[in-house]
Amino acid sequence: MKAVVLLSGGLDSATAAALAMREQWELYGLTLRYGQQHVRETDAARRIATTLGFVKHVELQLDLAALGGSALTGDGEVPKDRPLDDLSIPPTYVPARNTIFLSVALAWAEVVGAECIVMGVNAVDYSGYPDCRPEYIAAFEDMARLATKAGVEGRPLRIWAPLQHLTKSEIIRLGIRLGLDYGMTHSCYDPAPDGRPCGRCDSCRLRAKGFAEAGVEDPLVRPNS
Q: Which of 99, 167, 185, 188 is the most buried (most CB within 10 A)?
């Protein structure tokens, strides 16, 4: 089976890709450079695609920064030290990002004849983004069935989000069992010039919490750094 993988370069998308690889699917990676400030994740996506043996990896430029509306695209400051139980929608929300990403992935899936789109969204340990919820994924899948040639001809594409109901620590333990090297991933929204994670943004803190609860050391965190 062929699958288009939305590959951000982060921990979750890498784990979802490793799961798809275990299923022996042919993987087509799609990475969107959407004007995000933390561009190092694109480098991470390349490493993951190479390591996992993707058939093809496409990087597509989509300048959402021109629209504004998110701290991730330079519109305001990335918040630091927010309480992890605060599920209000933060300034790092990118308006309609997953809808845009899934739409592009859907188009490519039709072109390559893929049966599903793989994404690493998580609705347990996450930052309150509305487009990470299971009901959103289900609604997009219904839309894809109605809006595509494949769907009309009885070959509807599946949106496979295998991490939706897992905690970050469960995701990390799963990835380790799959032999995934989390040292090649990138999570930080606001890294230092040398690439070191800030340790204080939502993504860094959720990652740290996950590794701590999993009882393993994050390979990206240097001793005494």
A: 185
Structure tokens at 191: 């890294």
Helix (H) or strand (E) holding 153: none
In the 8-state DSSP scheme, what is residue 173?
H
Q: Decide yes or no: CATH 3.40.50.620 for domain 2-214.
A: yes
pLDDT at 225: 45
DSSP state of 77: P
Q: Residue 162 phi/psi, 5° resolution?
A: -70, -10
Q: How does 173-211 read in b/e, with b if 16+ C-beta sit within 10 Å?
A: bbbeeeebebebbbbbbbbeeeeebbbbbbbbbbbbebb
- Collect contacts of 123-127 with beta carbons under 8 A, ≥24 apart: 123/164, 123/165, 124/164, 124/165, 124/166, 124/167, 124/168, 125/167, 125/168, 125/169, 125/206, 125/209, 125/210, 126/206, 127/87, 127/90, 127/92, 127/93, 127/202, 127/203, 127/206
Q: Is the pTM of this model over 0.85?
A: yes
For residue 178, pLDDT beyond 70: yes
- Ranges 13-27, 82-96, 203-217: which has the least confidence: 82-96
| Tokens standing for residue 169 | 């620590």
Ranges of each domain in the chain: 2-214
Determine the pLDDT at residue 85: 84
